[in-house]
Amino acid sequence: MKIQDRTFIVSGGSSGLGRSTTVEIIKAGGYVAILDLSDEEDGRALEKELGPSAKFFRCNVIRTEDIAKAVQGTVDWVKETGKPLGGVIPAAGISLPGTILNRHGDAFSLDDVDFVLGVNLRGTIDLIRQSAVHLAKVDPEGPDGERGVIIMVSSSSAFDGQYGQVSYAASKGAVASMALPMSRDLARHGIRVVAIAPSVFVSGLTAAMSDKVRKSLQDTFVFPNRAGNPPEFSMLVKHVIENPMLNGAVIRLDGASRMGKL
């Protein structure tokens, strides 16, 4: 599917992997509806920085009504620009590390678990289900009758989650598990589904890590021996959009790293 003159919804689109994805799509001639928790002033500044191909919608993906408002706002924007919806990239994510029992033998907070699952899993499903309603109505493109693509963000933690990552690994494992059944559900509508599972990438989440943790993660990379850079993620997003045979798959983007327990 061509990116040019198509509109893509990116949650978490103002920072990290989401922002890099936004920039990549706009560079390729696409339009992006950026859903993020940034305040309105920062959102307007981001729109100005990225130009007329970007539109900001303040959105907390835990709140169904926020998503509904942002998706409808995107649909209205599409009518103004004439650039049809082309896909959805739910990139909003959160991590709250915590072991099931702490050093004192106390159980971790179920509120924290609900929050991580709410953002990473429920927020992903909710944005997809509300956006897919409109994506399925787009005029099909090309000989395959493709209407769009959904690119979910899983994690290498889905496969080798570390100490204290039960909630995060559970949420990202669930995202990976959805790729195939979701692709089967949406095939009749000409919509593909792919999940990307990155390992450690330079982002706000990794910036908050201690030097010890960051080094232990970096040492797991085979080649290149470093954390990934956001443009390396967004390059893959671009390829997934443009390659119609990528469907129902989970693609690891991790420099052959396999995480240890820490």
From TrEMBL:
<dbReference type="Pfam" id="PF00106">
    <property type="entry name" value="adh_short"/>
</dbReference>
<dbReference type="InterPro" id="IPR020904">
    <property type="entry name" value="Sc_DH/Rdtase_CS"/>
</dbReference>
<dbReference type="InterPro" id="IPR036291">
    <property type="entry name" value="NAD(P)-bd_dom_sf"/>
</dbReference>
<dbReference type="GO" id="GO:0016491">
    <property type="term" value="F:oxidoreductase activity"/>
</dbReference>
<keyword id="KW-0521">NADP</keyword>
<dbReference type="InterPro" id="IPR002347">
    <property type="entry name" value="SDR_fam"/>
</dbReference>
<keyword id="KW-0560">Oxidoreductase</keyword>
<protein>
    <submittedName>
        <fullName>3-hydroxyacyl- dehydrogenase</fullName>
    </submittedName>
</protein>
<dbReference type="InterPro" id="IPR057326">
    <property type="entry name" value="KR_dom"/>
</dbReference>
<feature type="domain" description="Ketoreductase">
    <location>
        <begin position="6"/>
        <end position="199"/>
    </location>
</feature>
